[in-house]
Sequence to fold (214 residues):
Amino acid sequence: MASHHVARMACQTGPVTPADTAARSALLRRGFALEYVTLAWNVAGIVVLAIAAISARSVALAGFGLDSLIEIGASAVVIWELSGTGEERQRLGLRLIGYAFAALAVYLLVQSTVVLATGYHPQRSITGIIWTAVTATVMFALAAGKAQTGRALGNPVLRTEGRVTMIDGILATAVLLGLVLNAALGWWWADPAAGYVLVFYAAREVREIFFASG
Fold:
């Protein structure tokens, strides 16, 4: 397999053969494809989630929509890196993502707290339920592909972004659970509770991004 072939390349001290170059090129193309699919899915997600969040007045859906925007930025950073762009631009991109995560955390913390304090009941959102369920499946599949490709390439940036995609799938599952509990059992507080899950994730990403870049 191509991945095994490239893995052997890391242990070789001799010249790189055309077959080695072809295998690496194939893996790079796969890495680009995974990131472009992630970009396209999240662009569509922003539109779908914006409509669903406004219709249902859902804090969790609004927050997950903002998270999709941040995931677009993360994928763009990886595409830059795979294209061989400079490390300085990569560091700048990561810091911009960190600022975006900080803004997301503040927004969700305030909005979720206000919703809980006022007892506001979000509406049911069938669109939100369907989209988050499908998104969770897609993100888990993409994360597995990025992890495998990143290992084969020996690329830590792609592997790290794969973990971000994995967490995105976990967040979709958390939001889905809140939406289902609200729709099926009338547990309105499950929606802002899912918002707090997003706050925890965003705050953790801010810490890791700025610790790594600081």
